[in-house]
Amino acid sequence: MSHVFPRHNLSAPPKAVRGEGCYLYDEAGKQYFDGSGGAAVSCLGHGDPEIIQAIQDQAAQLAYAHTGFFTSAPAEELADLLISEAPGDLDRVYFVSGGSEAVESALKLARQYFLEIGQPQRRHIIARRQSYHGNTLGALATGGNAWRRAQFEPILMDVSHVAPCYEYVDRRSDESPFDYGQRVAQELEDEILRLGEDSVIAFVAEPVVGATMGAVPAVDGYFKRIREICDRYGVLLILDEVMCGMGRVGHLFACDAEGVAPDILCIAKGLGAGYQPIGAMLCSSRIYDAISAGSGFFQHGHTYLGHPVACATSLAVLKALKDRNLIPRVREQGEKLDMALRDRFGQHPHIGDIRGRGLFRGMEFVRDRDGKTPFAPSDNVAARFKKAAFEAGLVCYPMSGTRDGNLGDHVLLAPPFIISDDQIEEVVDKLETAVQAVV
Ligand code: PLP
Q1: pTM of the predicted model as reported, rounded to 2 decimal places
Q2: Ligand 1 test: best mutation among 132, 136, 140, 238, most atoms within 8 Å of CB?
Q3: How does pLDDT run across 36-90, given as a tens digit for each residue?
Q4: Are residues 217 and 309 in the same domain?
Q5: CATH number at residue 430
Q6: ipTM above 0.85, yes or no
Q7: Which residues line ligand 1 (CB under 6 A)?
Q8: Do 342 and 315 sit in the same domain of this protein?
Q9: Which of 219, 323, 391, 392 could pair covalently with 433 via S-S, beta carbons 3.0-4.6 A apart?
């Protein structure tokens, strides 16, 4: 019997023993194409010698020094590098170990900021339905995924949820995409006014929604309108780029494509590319200075903040993105993947939408295309798809929105940035095998 507490107890997963490029291998020697980079993590692929070398060098030099006493060269350099590319006035970086920690840090920082500037009455967080911001209690409360929240509702903090920007499902036929975006953004202003115009701390959103909707970008103008609303009421905009950031959508920061800069930005996943667990929260000096001038320190912290080996790994990852010109490649290969998906599945009776940006792509399954009717929860489409794809040797990320108010099933693709043209065909072939088996 395995003593590892499994993620899902439905069946014993195979033991992964090796990774190379875009492939993973289990102990029986079966090869899997890592079509979702795990969960949009492995952006460089597996077994990258430069990253491995950086880990070894840093571990030999300095593996750990508690940030209550020390800073370290890799943390300093990584912060400088991130800030040199960061949008707007973001110029401080708080390193954590993953996405949920980045979101928790952002929520607490936002609340503490308003205490420091004498606005203790601000106590509400607003986020969006069908969002995912992590599994720790604050991040879980912020997320709008009903299924993930259900068991913990009684112990979750109170967060308001407004509409996501989900054009395929929600845009009316008499509305332009732009008007649709303005209409759903208006829900934020309405909610701020309902709660009290000086009582909201922050609005939290993913620029391109990953886990709960399957690579859904907002329509043009939506985030600009969100930014205006936040500014009008002094509400902080927290963008969660844990999944869609670090080059995944063809820009180092996903919000660059929106022309909008947040007050606080959360990143993780691709930051460590799966070689080390690391996340970060970036904030502006306005926020940082208010805290330094006030109580003097952010009342938060974890043991592994700014871990030197994790930071050195991320430095090597960012260097690889730049030296190997990978972000333009994400845009190029992303377009090819999109075209290949459309060629193969564009007319499929049970695939209603193909969408995404860069190498962050999704397909939504429907019972019928015209009515966009989702499958029933009992059809179990996402779970069956995951199994069929895995059997065909493809790791992808199917999620069932049917658990979230019967909103549909989708599959998310987030392959390594090194994916070749032939490998795009390989992914689409394997997807087709799974599609044929399931819908
Ligand atoms: N935020 C977003 C947008 C995510 O997609 C995730 C994970 O999928 C998280 C936060 C939580 O990250 P982690 O699983 O590293 O805690």
Answers
A1: 0.97
A2: 132
A3: 999 999 999 999 999 999 999 999 999 999 999 999 999 999 999 999 999 999 9
A4: yes
A5: 3.90.1150.10
A6: yes
A7: 39, 98-100, 103, 132-134, 206, 210-211, 240, 242-243, 268
A8: no
A9: 392
